[in-house]
């Protein structure tokens, strides 16, 4: 795995900026946190500040940080497609009275979980030397499927230069081809600029007759989808592994693989029930990495599936800091839980990790989104960084400017009754108008044109 090495390539975390309509509508299937917080009051301003504080921690470690902007909400395009007519205020008012579920769908802030925005493969792995993007179709739920076309536009606006960046269409809308992006995808390499090997994890085959077993929750990712993305990105067949999720994990609330495994460089932290056939998956990963991968597995006897899901241990970010230390950026729930705290201490004493940083992203966690859900990893070489829209890359000044922007535009609280307030639309558009100027993205959204 070390033919050529672009030493200037870096892995950048693109975090979803938590949007002004972050709320708890209980929309997400198989996601226990989303279900249990349904209809509670949310705190959009606090949520966004927690997200920015996490970014500050990563920046403090010397890890490159960028943001992806939130999407316009409520999505009037969606509500009009669903038959609501008249002025914007009429559309919102009628949806609120006649179909509050659909208004919640149109109001969702779920694009904040950018691990589901797309699958991205670095140029070092592609035959045409370009970075490849496939936006996730997110077909399992209406609120997430509604992100896809705007996500595609955002990625195209930031990575516009076709000599460096290749954008594929989202996979067709079919339950055979459910795709939830990078949350089910990991890449292993020595250094980010080296050619890597990739792991795609799915929970169902995709052919209806092969998926006939009935379980508590349906899987969101199919093998047919994962294989299609790998094919579109031109990945070499000896550099990919396709792994079936353990069905017990899905039924315990592991709706994405990043709830039960995290990989970075040549390390994989995972639970023993992450994969249906753990021995075979480990063997394949060893072969793909010339036996260089370090697989650190947690047994059910150490940490149950239920506690893996409630602490979100495996939804930590695993990063390499500027001084080349391996750091786990873990949710504060792991600090409070005795078992996860001692597992992390053990990993530090064994040299798997150099240190841990605990981050509080509890507003996002309450919807099932931990630290790793909030970021999309994109490896870029120096020329690729020069070719992108650089306004989304954060430094201290931009972080301060975003903090100021949140403080001026966000509401403190949102309740289910607030979703019917037509003023939210104007507030959201004003906020996004200012944001796209600040990030140098111009007129990105339909409402701005
Ligand atoms: O798709 N929650 C998201 C959480 C996504 C987490 N991402 C990763 N694991 N990578 C989901 O289940 C809840 C929205 C609501 O209930 O209002 C939601 O969509």
Question: What's the structural blueprint in terms of helices and strands?
Answer:
Blueprint lengths: L9 E7 L15 H5 L7 H17 L4 E4 L7 H6 L6 H11 L1 H8 L10 E4 L9 E5 L6 H4 L2 H11 L6 E3 L17 E4 L8 E6 L20 H10 L7 E5 L2 H5 L9 E4 L2 E5 L6 H11 L5 E5 L6 H7 L5 E4 L5 E6 H5 L1 H12 L5 E5 L2 H4 L9 E6 L1 H6 L8 H14 L13 H16 L11
Parallel strand pairs: 1-2, 4-5, 7-8, 10-11, 13-14
Antiparallel strand pairs: 1-15, 3-4, 6-7, 9-10, 12-13
Bound molecules: N~2~-(3-carboxypropanoyl)-L-arginine.
N~2~-(3-carboxypropanoyl)-L-arginine (SUG) binds next to loops.
Summarize the structure.
The protein has 449 residues and is α/β, with parallel strands linked by helices. Helices cover 34% and strands 16% of the residues. The radius of gyration is 21 Å and the shape is globular.
């Amino acid at each position: 795995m070390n033919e050529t090495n672009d030493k200037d390539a870096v892995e950048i975390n693109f975090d979803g900026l938590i949007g002004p309509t972050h709320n708890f509508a209980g929309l997400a299937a198989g996601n226990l946190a989303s279900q249990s917080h349904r209809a509670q009051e949310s705190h959009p301003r606090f949520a966004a500040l927690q997200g920015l504080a996490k970014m500050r921690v990563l920046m403090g470690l010397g890890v490159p940080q960028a943001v992806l902007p939130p999407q316009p909400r409520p999505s009037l395009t969606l509500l009009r497609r669903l038959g609501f007519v008249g002025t914007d205020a009429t559309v919102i008012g009628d949806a609120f009275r006649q179909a509050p579920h659909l208004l919640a769908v149109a109001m969702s802030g779920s694009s904040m979980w950018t691990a589901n925005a797309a699958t991205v493969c670095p140029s070092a792995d592609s035959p045409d030397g370009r970075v490849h993007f496939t936006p996730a179709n997110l077909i399992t739920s209406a609120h997430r499927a509604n992100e896809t076309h705007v996500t595609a536009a955002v990625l195209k606006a930031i990575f516009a230069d076709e000599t460096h960046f290749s954008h594929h269409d989202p996979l067709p809308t079919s339950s055979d081809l459910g795709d939830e992006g990078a949350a089910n995808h990991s890449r292993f390499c020595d250094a980010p600029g080296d050619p890597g090997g990739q792991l795609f994890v799915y929970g169902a085959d995709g052919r209806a007759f092969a998926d006939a077993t009935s379980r508590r929750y349906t899987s969101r990712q199919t093998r047919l989808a994962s294989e299609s993305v790998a094919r579109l990105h031109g990945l070499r067949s000896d550099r990919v592994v396709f792994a079936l999720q353990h069905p017990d994990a899905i039924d315990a609330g592991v709706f994405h693989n990043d709830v039960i495994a995290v990989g970075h460089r040549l390390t994989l932290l995972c639970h023993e029930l992450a994969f249906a056939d753990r021995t075979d998956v480990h063997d394949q990963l060893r072969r793909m990495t010339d036996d260089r991968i370090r697989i650190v597995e947690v047994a059910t006897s150490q940490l149950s599936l239920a506690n893996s899901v409630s602490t979100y241990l495996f939804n930590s970010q695993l990063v390499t800091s500027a001084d080349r230390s391996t750091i786990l950026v873990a949710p504060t729930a792991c600090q409070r839980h005795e078992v996860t705290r001692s597992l992390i201490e053990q990993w530090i004493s064994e040299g798997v990790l150099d240190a841990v940083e605990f981050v509080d992203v509890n507003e996002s966690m309450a919807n099932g989104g931990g630290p790793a859900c909030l970021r999309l990893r994109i490896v870029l070489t120096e020329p690729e960084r020069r070719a992108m829209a650089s306004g989304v890359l954060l430094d201290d000044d931009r972080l301060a400017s975003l903090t100021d922007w949140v403080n001026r535009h966000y509401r403190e609280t949102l309740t289910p009754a607030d979703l019917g307030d037509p003023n939210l639309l104007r507030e959201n558009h004003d906020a996004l108008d200012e944001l796209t100027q600040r990030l140098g993205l111009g007129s990105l959204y339909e409402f701005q044109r």
